[in-house]
Write a structure and sequence with these properties.
Strand order of the largest sheet: 1-2-3-4-5-6-8-7
Helix content: 25-40%
Number of helices: 5
Shape: globular
Largest sheet: 8 strands, mixed
Strand content: 25-35%
Structural class: alpha+beta
Radius of gyration: 16 Å
Number of strands: 8
Order of helices and strands: EEHHHEEEHEHEE
Length: 180
């Protein structure tokens, strides 16, 4: 079996308006707000209870694949690249785990193009760091904004399936179709 290439971590990626970096201690209040927000939780199973989440959040939330999205020194969201086994048993995939893109942004950052800017930067970094690998993304079909973003980023629908009590949309992005 061929060994998977590894990317150097952590990168720091600057875009026109954003800095993508490792999470820092100062991000803790924004991370709590992000994961306990009823608006953010709408399509991911609901908000986490605040006290429970605060207790479970590690002091050092750094890990490969987790990008803090920083606007003028404040965390406004996160973008993740994780290696996951696909939730759907019917999906076609390369042997083993696949890279999966995820993103969450605070409601006050919605509609400003930050998610598009941040995800485009992460996908471009990924293409350079791990050439030739595709990326998947899943979201509820009810989350039309997320599907629009995925399509804008170059993800193509590969399947719909039932999970977590709702219909899910799954797309795949190929490094030959880099976002603009």
């Amino acid at each position: 079996m061929a060994q998977r290439a590894r990317a150097t971590w952590p990168p720091m990626i600057a875009t026109e308006r954003l800095l993508l970096r490792e999470p820092e201690g100062k991000d803790r209040p924004a991370l709590v707000e992000l994961f306990t927000s009823p608006e953010v939780g709408t399509y991911i199973g609901g908000p986490r209870p605040r006290q429970e989440f605060e207790r479970s959040l590690p002091e050092d939330n750094r890990r490969p694949g987790l990008f803090a999205v920083d606007l003028h020194g404040a965390l406004i969201g996160i973008v993740t690249l994780d290696r996951l086994e696909p939730v759907s048993k019917s999906c076609v995939r390369v042997a083993g785990e696949e890279a999966t893109l995820g993103y969450l942004f605070l409601p006050e950052a919605w509609g400003c193009g930050y998610a598009t800017e941040a995800c485009t930067a992460v996908l471009n970094w990924f293409t350079t760091a791990l050439p030739g690998e595709s990326v998947s993304l899943s979201t509820q079909t009810a989350n039309s904004a997320s599907i629009r973003l995925a399509t804008k980023l170059g993800f193509t629908e590969v399947e719909r399936y039932e999970a977590y009590g709702a219909e899910q949309w799954r797309g795949r992005w190929s490094p030959t179709r880099r976002p603009a």
